[in-house]
Design a protein that fits this description.
40% helix, 5 strands, alpha+beta, 2 domains, five-stranded mixed β-sheet, Ubiquitin-like (UB roll)
Length: 124
């Protein structure tokens, strides 16, 4: 989020003029510099829809905590040969229905840090 003081804003405007670029470019650089590093999550994937032999049994995936739920579905779909649009996911008793949310926004990162053994589940 970009919330500068007046002096910082004026400094950014001057820098943008000096570089010959729009102010938005300088703002994007500043915001990107403040971003926290990506945290990787190692999630166990189980299924309530399949028997273990049908989808390759429980398996682990490594994803970033800022990955969107739609990206996770695509990753799982490639692994088990199922269309991502058909996959419904749940974690810690919650359905992960909002495809635009990241794993961190859906609470997966928070609960995974506390209980690493909780699986990401393919629901019926």
């Amino acid at each position: 989020m970009y919330d500068p003081t007046r002096e910082e804003y004026l400094r950014d405007v001057a820098r943008a003029k000096e570089m010959g670029v729009p102010i938005g470019t300088v703002i994007e650089e500043r915001v990107a510099a403040r971003k926290r590093p990506r945290k990787m999550l190692r999630l166990l994937v189980t299924s309530r829809l399949h028997v273990d032999a049908e989808y390759g049994g429980p398996f682990w995936i490594d994803v970033a905590d800022d990955a969107r739920i739609s990206e996770v579905k695509k990753l799982i779909g490639e692994r088990v040969n199922v269309l991502p649009g058909v996959i419904r996911l749940g974690f810690a008793g919650k359905k992960l229905d909002d495809h635009a949310k990241t794993l961190a926004q859906a609470g997966v990162r928070y609960w995974h840090e506390k209980f690493e053994s909780w699986p990401l589940t393919i629901l019926r």
